[in-house]
Every structure is written in structure tokens, then in C-alpha cells.
Amino acid sequence: xxxxxxxxxxxxxxxxxxxxxxxxxxxxxxxxxxxxxxxxxxxxxxxxxxxxxxxxxxxxxxxxxxxxxxxxxxxxxxxxxxxxxxxxxxxxxxxxxxxxxxxxxxxxxxxxxxxxxxxxxxxxxxxxxxxxxxxxxxxxxxxxxxxxxxxxxxxxxxxxxxxxxxxxxxxxxxxxxxx
Length: 179
Fold this sequence. Notes:
Number of strands: 5
Strand content: 5-15%
Strand order of the largest sheet: 3-2-1-4-5
């Protein structure tokens, strides 16, 4: 893992870049690298996937990390941005299919969003005891902040010329079918 503080030292040179955000194992970056394209996988320190390439560690909910990524996009060196769906709060089957080790007495995972509440179910109240706990709300809010960043970044990519003449920066958004 490459800590945020040393990103600047590692990303010098004139080559074009592909950014892979919420990279998990980094397999997409690995494939780009095989094709001689400098890929930059970015993910938080703790990941559910074993990393297959050196990964730039940064929490996409943090403003300083987002600003740094904005700066990269605006350099004119980025040719493509790949964004993976953040966290697990978007997984519609997280309560039904996710196997996790629970502490004794811990509640099972459950869906934090539904069709009526795509930005997250309401918080728990006396009138709605099945609402989100404070912990669940914080998880949903963090994932929502990343999605808002992705939306703004995709718009910026459309408006920003990439390193290829007269072409905007391309982008992709990856989400599981049950998101």
C-alpha cells in the first residue's frame, strides 16, 4: 500500500493515467499496466479483497483525497476514470446473502436502502424502530458522499479535455447487478 502522503513522489512523469477508484484487488489496474498504460488504483486502507498491485491508499470520503484526485483529472494526463460502487450499503442482498462472523448478540446485516429510499432508509425513531441506527446512517452517508463525488467527477470528465486531442476524459461506473 502506498500512503496518501507519498502519492506525489510516485506519480511524476508525462505518461497518461487511468484512475481506478475503490479498486479492491486492483485487477483492472493490473490489466492496464500489462498494456503499458500507467494505472493508479486507489482504495482505503482496509479492503475486503487481497491487493494484486501496489495500491494508493486514500479514503474517498475525505476532502483532501478528493481534491488530489480533482487535481490529477485537471492535469490533462488522465485518459480514463473507473469508479467502483463504494462500500456495501448499496448491496440489496447484504442481509440475505452476506456471510459474516458476528459477535454474540450482534444484529445481522440488513438492507440499508430500498426503492423508496435510494439515498438510505430513514433513521430509527420511536415511531420507526426498524429505521437505521446511527452506525448504519453514518455508513450510508459515507457511501453517499462518494457517489456525489463520482457524479461531480463524471461531469468534470465530460468537460475536461484529456491527453488525447479534442477528446474528453472517458469514465465508467461499476456496480453490482443487485445494487
